[in-house]
Write a structure and sequence with these properties.
two-stranded antiparallel ribbon; T-cell receptor alpha chain constant domain-containing protein; transmembrane helix; 3-stranded antiparallel β-sheet; membrane; 148 residues; flat; transmembrane
Length: 148
C-alpha cells in the first residue's frame, strides 16, 4: 500500500497511516459485544447485585442501580469482559430479565481431588523431608569432625 519503505506501518485509509516504533506492542482482540448477566448474591443480611460478563465499559449505566453508584467496572487481566458489584437493600432492586440469572453459584466440582496430584504432592513432601534430614546429618558430621 501507501507505506513505502516502512516495515512497521499500517495503512488506515485516505492519507492516514499508523507508524509503530520498535518498542510498540499491539494487541488485537475480537470486538464481540456481550450484555451483562446479573446475579443476586446473599450472605446473612448483606445482599449484593453482581453484573458480570459485559464487554462495554458503560453497559450497566442503563440500569438505575448501577448508574447511581461511584464504583467502576473492573476487568481481570487477560479477560475480555468487565464485572461490577453493588450492595443492595432489596433483592428486587437487582435487575432481571434478558441475560439475567438467579440462584446460587454452583461450587461443586471446583475442588475435586486427583490421585496423581495427591501422589505427586506426597512424593515432593517425602523428598523435602529426606533433603532436610541429609542437610542436618551433614551439619552434625561436620561439627563432629571440627571438634576432634
Amino acid at each position: 500500500g501507501i507505506c513505502h519503505g516502512l516495515e512497521r506501518c499500517v495503512y488506515i485509509g485516505g492519507n492516514q497511516k499508523l507508524i509503530f516504533g520498535t518498542g510498540t506492542k499491539l494487541i488485537v482482540e475480537s470486538g464481540t459485544p456481550s450484555d451483562p448477566s446479573y446475579y443476586l448474591l446473599e450472605k446473612d443480611s448483606t445482599q449484593a447485585c453482581l453484573a458480570t460478563g459485559f464487554s462495554a465499559y458503560n453497559a450497566t449505566d442503563k440500569e438505575p442501580l448501577f448508574n447511581q453508584t461511584k464504583s467502576s467496572p473492573t476487568r481481570i487481566e487477560h479477560e475480555a469482559t468487565f464485572d461490577k458489584v453493588v450492595l443492595v437493600q432489596n433483592a428486587t432492586d437487582c435487575p432481571s430479565g434478558k441475560g439475567s440469572a438467579s440462584g446460587e453459584c454452583a461450587t461443586e466440582g471446583f475442588f475435586e481431588t486427583d490421585e496423581k496430584i495427591n501422589f505427586l504432592s506426597l512424593t515432593i513432601l517425602g523428598l523435602r523431608v529426606l533433603f532436610l534430614k541429609s542437610v542436618v546429618f551433614n551439619v552434625i558430621m561436620t561439627l563432629r569432625v571440627w571438634m576432634s
